[in-house]
Amino acid sequence: xxxxxxxxxxxxxxxxxxxxxxxxxxxxxxxxxxxxxxxxxxxxxxxxxxxxxxxxxxxxxxxxxxxxxxxxxxxxxxxxxxxxxxxxxxxxxxxxxxxxxxxxxxxxxxxxxxxxxxxxxxxxxxxxxxxxxxxxxxxxxxxxxxxxxxxxxxxxxxxxxxxxxxxxxxxxxxxxxxxxxxxxxxxxxxxxxxxxxxxxxxxxxxxxxxxxxxxxxxxxxxxxxxxxxxxxxxxxxxxxxxxxxxxxxxxxxxxxxxxxxxxxxxxxxxxxxxxxxxxxxxxxxxxxxxxxxxxxxxxxxxxxxxxxxxxxxxxxx
Length: 317
Ligand SMILES: NC(=O)c1ccc[n+]([C@@H]2O[C@H](COP(=O)([O-])OP(=O)(O)OC[C@H]3O[C@@H](n4cnc5c(N)ncnc54)[C@H](O)[C@@H]3O)[C@@H](O)[C@H]2O)c1
Fold this sequence. Notes:
Layout: H1 5-14, E1 24-25, H2 30-40, E2 43-44, H3 48-55, E3 60-62, H4 71-79, E4 83-85, H5 93-106, E5 110-112, H6 120-131, E6 136-143, H7 155-158, H8 160-164, H9 167-177, E7 180-188, E8 203-210, E9 215-222, E10 229-235, E11 239-244, E12 249-254, E13 260-262, H10 268-282, H11 292-311, E14 315-316
Parallel strand pairs: 1-2, 3-4, 4-5, 6-9
Antiparallel strand pairs: 6-10, 7-8, 7-14, 8-9, 10-11, 11-12, 12-13
The structure holds nicotinamide-adenine-dinucleotide.
């Protein structure tokens, strides 16, 4: 459900997994669903409930934008269909907590689209951090000024860049540090000019404290036109870990040791989708590294950060 950019990415990945077929599609814009169907297959339906009732597919991909969440998850719950859902899980705390509670009660298989959790380098670092706790992290997601976009630039829909993109980095910090206790954030506006329907911060920074005693500072920018990037640096007592760019290549450096680099996988969506499809096929959730309720915990951090920007105060998580 939702047949835009990321749906096409998953369609391409699923085409590389034997025995998968897109059997139905739905989108708020009928012509978008028709266009997707003509390229990737699937019967077009007016809405997700009709699709699930008619086809009873093995699973559902919820790839609509995060402002449009809730309908697909509730339909999947009603029809007992396992679902994969894009990040962030949604924008509304009430809906997120309600659906997470229903999903957990039902035992329905779900997968949250935090694909970096499937990377070898990320899991090597996680294993090392389990032995030697992470103390400090700093990272960010820096891009240039956006152009005209149907929903991304509208903070009431996307939740802003911290919530919509930097969520990947926030989720990795949860993967490494454990659960958070508090977030504080500050944002700036007024530098980007003349962008239609633009209401997000031009840049923001957030500090998250974790129950393990560690702390991270994550920075988001959509006004860094001379260059930016995606990065996350973490250190423990005797090790530093430096992740760089969208691929999350990582350099691991121990005290008095030579650095070791682990290059990231180029086909991460195939790896992530294989983990979910394997779980659906076997009925065993072991291959899934983040489910819906877990993904909600990452969304609540950036929702808290947005609240902190509004109030100027730290927000307990
Ligand atoms: N995992 C990743 O790295 C990654 C990358 C890109 C996007 N995403 C996420 O995927 C989601 C979609 O992003 P996108 O870039 O594909 O957006 P997009 O704008 O390219 O496509 C969204 C599609 O959803 C449709 N849509 C809107 N409201 C709908 C509704 N209520 N029901 C059904 N369809 C609806 C739109 O008509 C459009 O066709 C976002 O939440 C985004 O954060 C994740």
